[in-house]
Amino acid sequence: MSGSDPGKPVIQVKDLKKYYNGTDIKALDGVSMDIYKGEVVVIIGPSGSGKSTFLRSLNLLERPTSGTILFEGQDITSPKTDINKLRQKMGMVFQHFNLFPHMTILDNMTLGPRKLLSMTKPSAEAKAKELLKKVALEDRANAYPSQLSGGQKQRIAIVRALCMSPDVMLFDEPTSALDPEMVGEVLDVMKVLARSGMTMVVVTHEMGFAREVGTRVVFIDQGKILVSDTPDKVFENPDNERLKTFLAKVL
Amino acid sequence: MYYSSLLALELPEWLSDWLADIGDQFYLNFIKDQRYMYILKGLGITLLVTFLAVLLGIVLGVLAAIIRSTHDKLVTDMRGGFGKAVLSALNFITNLYLTVIRGTPVVVQLMIAYFVIFSSSNNKVLVAVLAFGFNSGAYVAEIIRSGIMSIDQGQFEAGRSLGFNFVQTMAYIIIPQAFKNVLPALANEFIVLLKETSVSGYIGLEDMTKGGDIIRSRTYSAFMPLLAVAAIYLVIVIFFSRLVTILERRLRNSERQ
Ligand SMILES: Nc1ncnc2c1ncn2[C@@H]1O[C@H](COP(=O)(O)OP(=O)(O)OP(=O)(O)O)[C@@H](O)[C@H]1O
Ligand SMILES: [Mg+2]
Q: Residue B172 and residue A115: Cβ atoms within 8 Å?
């Protein structure tokens, strides 16, 4: 897909390196990647390989040690860049949902649009309710997060991010904290989102999802990208030894 | 015959003497020369000073807590420059404030405030409010800070990832949750402060304790005025403790059902 897209990449990562303060572990050791509009990039790799660090660098939750990240042409680490403005266009979904427990579902979803996009309360709520309908949770609008199941919480977390009308959605192991019977409902929402054309970067251990909706699968090990290819190639015909070992373990 | 035996019910002599004595004492300590006014006026001063000092303490405490947690959260991420210098300076001042206030007795602080810092002022209420407010702020700061620290880092990241800046994330997401978590501790601080203001007599401020003590010095009987003062403190403390329990339950319910 990236080959056929003539436009500029939405996200352009060049030689990204990250050493955490006080450690000499190279969490990221020179990672470069172009992500184009409409792509669903699935990042796989062993535990501690740097997947989260990479994803969290994309919206500057982690500050890279060196390298550049361009989002829609802007260098996100530049002091001249308003990172808060850019983050509005990059939705993020966390492993542990991180819904705001002191607010209702509706308030969770409308806080950003109202305070950051200056939407009026009625229009923000109308938009939120429309999205709630899409994830079949419209009857939970006035509930508090503690009243929802894990799968429901994660679906809310996804639509909360969507309320900001982002250009890109980042997912860090969105189903890893869920009971097995709830994984499907969250993946289904993500599949619908992918098919709607959303640009997505997904860190996951769900190989079925990677194979089915990924436009590209990236294998990271020890802070380096070892493989970046189509799901077919990665899963049917892998030629990297470390990838083969990894797949043998998880499949 | 039946009635007369009831009417003839006589108290034992020691009991009726004792009651009469109490009556006299009560008259002497509270009624005569309207002495109860010392306690009543004193109660007003006590409540006024406590209330204003708590407000000041919360403002100072929240500020100090925000400076310290901002410093802890951000300073490793900042790449030098003006912002970092300002933040470090503020953090230093805050730490100095917390150390000095928590390392010295409140009575000494109160006297220093009245006899040294504001020696030209005669407004004892104002001096007491400032002294107790600054004192309380140092303790409130630690309460609020522990509340902020108790909030999961994921809440902070969720706020920032939506595009909120540091201050907005604090204001909309972190502080409301932290505040709720520490509400019992804050209410306790109010109760502690209410009792601490009883040393106001050291600067000649006629709070409730001083009021009771003035009566004692006039009537040469300590029992009634001091017990009355103690009882009033106790009632207020119990009242506020109840109020906090109710408030806590309300807050908890709003999250659950
Ligand atoms: N805040 C941190 N401080 C120090 N080291 C860290 C920190 N976060 C991650 N690391 C280290 O950086 C490396 C990469 O971590 P990262 O979380 O990116 O891995 P991951 O691929 O997401 O792993 P997992 O599958 O377990 O989530 C690991 O060695 C980890 O121990
Ligand atoms: Mg991870």
A: yes
Give the count of domains, chain B.
1
Closest atom of ligand 1 to A205 CA is 25
Please give the ipTM for the structure prediction. Answer: 0.93
Residue B188 Cα, ligand 2 centroid: separation in angstroms?
41
Ligand nearest to the backbone CA of A23: 1
Alpha carbons B135 and B154: distance in angstroms, whole number: 33
Residue B17 lies in a domain: no
Q: For the whole model, what pTM was predicted?
A: 0.83
Residue B150 domain-assigned? yes
Residues in chain A closer than 8 A to B155 (CB atoms) = 98, 100
How close B199 comes to chain A (CA, Å)? Answer: 40
Q: Which domain holds residue B115?
A: 36-256
Assess whether the C-beta atom of A223 lies below 6 angstroms from ligand 1: no
Q: Is residue B109 part of a domain?
A: yes
What CATH number did the domain enclosing B71 receive?
1.10.3720.10
pLDDT, tens digit, 9 for 90 and up, residues A99-143: 999 999 999 999 999 999 999 999 999 999 999 999 999 999 999
- In sign, the C-alpha dihedral spanning B232, B237, B240, B246 is negative
- Asked if residue B10 belongs to a domain, the reply is no
* Two tokens, residue A230: 């189509």
- Look up residue A219 and give its two tokens: 């294998």
Q: Which amino acid is at B255?
A: E
